[in-house]
Specification:
about 5% strand, 23 helices, elongated, alpha/beta, Tetracycline Repressor, domain 2, four-stranded mixed beta sheet, CBS-domain, three-stranded mixed beta sheet, 3 domains, about 450 residues, MgtE N-terminal fold, homodimer
């Protein structure tokens, strides 16, 4: 709108689709600055996006899908014919295939699997079964595996023969296995380069390599890669057989997605990413499902006010302070929630260390509660010239701040213990509790001090 | 507390330090599960943590520091003698050195630099000058560089000679440069492996490689690596001279830290990470600095209520709905804020696309505002048996929800235009505005409808 002279890329893309100039379209999209493809496509309808993907060479279409945010890619795949979708998906790495198909409707996924090669389809069926944030769910099956009895020359010959196939593997190590013991070692390309052809590979491999079981979770994977400077971790089953490799980049991507998901859930976006290119009905109902729970929690908290209406009628100026106490306690508590969530992710606290967290929060709460209470009490005093009113409001906020930070620190630990997502539930639970306590404190202090603060 | 039979690792560490058994300590810490070192050390005092690091072999101490969250590492380094700190820092990769020293007090950093080798110190001084979230700030200077006139055999011989030195580089490519043209190509180890010694490296290198200028920002780096499946991007200056390499893993780490920072700021933790092992004064004052701004914004918003006290006195039950309207509008608006922040990071919207965002939000706001307004209006009607009261409260929430989502969607774009951090400022700005509007709407609707809703 504001930049009239600038032609937005989706306008150009549309005209190339209309003129049917596929080569020009392919070149245009390949040369758009990184990130612009996602933006351009998101401005077009689902059908239109699918049409464009269908026009591009399959390899380029697959690369494009990998570049887009996942919900967008899946949306496009769902609008392609199963034949086209299968051809494009087959060009992606195995874990990406599993992600795409796992996020789709099961009928559509089956239709695509039926059209892939039986081996690829089998791989994907296996991968889809692992939970998404585990080593099994994050690994790729594309990796180089050699028998432990080979020599350096054999490996180099195999690499040379299959150079084409391996080129897309993006691997830095080869894994050495034996039929009896499963994974026995890791071979670095670098060492291969510097050794004579006759050496047995077992003599240059790194024996007893770091590996992870397929059900190891994301937090643990992340911490393991923080410790060891590896590009990938081999993933094994109960019998130490090699299943695949988790690449560092996939773990980091998953951790990053987790942090984003936390941010979104913390802000009440539930049920996956939301982009404004998604259908209105989906966006509105997803947001509403969370809001409508929240409104009933709010009504619950506000019922405390209704219960004390007489006090409020006697001291109407209290009504000014109720929303402030509610908001400030929520803010103080949310700070503590965020710190607990970070410490949990980093492994700096365990869910059972509840008392330590509450102790640490209580001291912050005492200080901040005193300061905030003094501010609000001072304002109330000056405004109405009534020191008792100041005391009532200030004391209520001070005590409620203390409560809020202790609750805020504790709730994520409790939720984690119950295997719930702290990012999602901490906020609503916290604010409902702190609202109820805050309203109760102000109004019951006020009713006790009524003779000194009521307006005639 | 709850697990009495379990000896926490910091207790064991303390006893090993006291008995002075360094080998045992080193082994114990190396074998703690990933993540446990950070937790164990965070339970000890700064002096004690520094003492432990000083006892360990420098290489292991450096590896340990890399494993810890950065604020914790920097805290420990600051408590070491400059000699010890310099010895340990020298073992870390160059960008890590720059991060550590950049986060320290400048006197302490200088003292450490003085004790490093002149070349290392010079590298770090260079690196510190680049802004942290740019290619320059994220790159390492450790990379393999060869002149374009060499042959495959020359490169292999050099790799063999310097195997020791290169082992710590963790690189997958060598970069090919010419004195005149700077960076001209990239050589993959794999291709080196498969070629004869006599071939000139220019014939097997990838010419015109993807590279980035040192001032390219994190978002762009991230999008570039989404497109190209590379382990690292070469970083160049204005004259195409090679300065270093940004590894994919460092970019992903930075993106992840950015997402965490957003979450923390969104929740009002400002000024860097907060861990509960940090000093109380720092934790309390950092949180308070944000809260004390917020409390004045709250007072500003609540002044709208004070202004309409007479209306409120006439219809005291409105006081029950004020905090609900405030909280619900804040929640609706924050959902829109989160979606805008995500879309900005992913490049799906540009700051100038304000009208598109407001349009998309308005339709969600109309639907959700109607539903939420109906709920709250219905409750008010049933509670007081007064349909006009229901209408007043419901209409106010409906309109305010529409306003809140439009503001919530727009504010991050405006802040980005002004080069401010949306995660930090969006929340307080949003809630202040929506509170003011919300209070104003309810109370002025109520005052217009006073004859029908006032309690006698």
């Amino acid at each position: 709108m504001e930049e009239d002279e600038h032609v937005e890329p989706w306008v150009e893309i549309e005209s190339m689709v209309q003129s049917g100039d596929v080569d020009q379209l392919d070149e245009f999209m390949t040369n758009l600055p990184p990130g612009e493809n996602a933006r351009a496509l998101s401005r077009l309808g689902d059908e239109e996006q699918a049409e464009i993907l269908g026009l591009l060479p399959q390899k380029d279409a697959a690369a494009l899908l990998e570049e887009l945010p996942e919900p967008q890619s899946v949306g496009i795949l769902e609008h392609l014919s199963p034949d086209q979708a299968a051809a494009i998906v087959s060009e992606a790495p195995s874990n990406q295939q599993a992600n795409f198909l796992g996020a789709m409707g099961s009928e559509q996924a089956e239709a695509i699997l039926d059209r892939m090669t039986p081996e690829d389809a089998e791989d994907v069926r296996q991968l889809v079964q692992y939970a998404s944030d585990t080593a099994g769910g994050l690994m790729v099956t594309e990796c180089l595996v050699f028998d432990k009895d080979l020599r350096v020359g054999d490996v180099i010959d195999d690499l040379r023969e299959n150079a084409e196939k391996y080129a897309s593997f993006n691997v830095q190590y080869a894994y050495i296995v034996s039929p009896e013991d499963g994974l026995v070692g890791v071979l670095r390309f670098r060492d291969l380069l510097l050794s004579s052809r006759q050496r047995p590979i077992v003599s240059i491999m790194i024996a007893e390599p770091v590996s992870v079981h397929h059900d190891v979770g994301l937090d643990k994977l992340h911490l393991t890669l923080e410790r060891y400077p590896l590009f990938g971790l081999p993933v094994t089953d109960d019998n130490n057989r090699l299943l695949g490799v988790v690449h560092r980049s996939n773990v980091q991507k998953a951790v990053q997605e987790q942090a984003n998901r936390s941010l979104l859930r913390f802000a009440g976006i539930v049920g996956g990413e939301e982009f404004r290119s998604m259908p209105l009905r989906l966006r509105a109902t997803r947001r509403l499902s969370w809001l409508s729970i929240n409104i009933f929690l709010n009504l619950l908290a506000a019922s405390v006010i209704a219960y004390h209406q007489d006090t409020l009628a006697a001291v109407i100026s209290l009504a000014v302070f109720l929303p402030i106490i509610s908001d400030m306690s929520g803010c103080s508590g949310n700070q503590a929630v965020a710190v607990s969530m970070r410490e949990l992710v980093l492994g700096l606290i365990k869910p059972y260390e509840l008392l330590r967290v509450i102790g640490k929060e209580a001291s912050v709460g005492l200080i901040n509660g005193t300061v905030l209470g003094a501010i609000i009490g001072g304002v109330a005093y000056i405004w109405k010239g009534n020191p008792v009113l100041g005391l009532v409001v200030g004391a209520a906020l001070a005590i409620n701040t203390l409560l809020a930070v202790c609750l805020g620190g504790a709730i994520p630990l409790l939720l984690r213990k119950l295997r719930q997502d702290p990012a999602l539930a901490s906020g609503p639970i916290l604010t409902t509790l702190t609202d109820m306590c805050g309203f109760f404190l102000v109004l019951s202090f006020a009713s006790a001090a009524l003779p000194w603060i009521s307006t005639p």
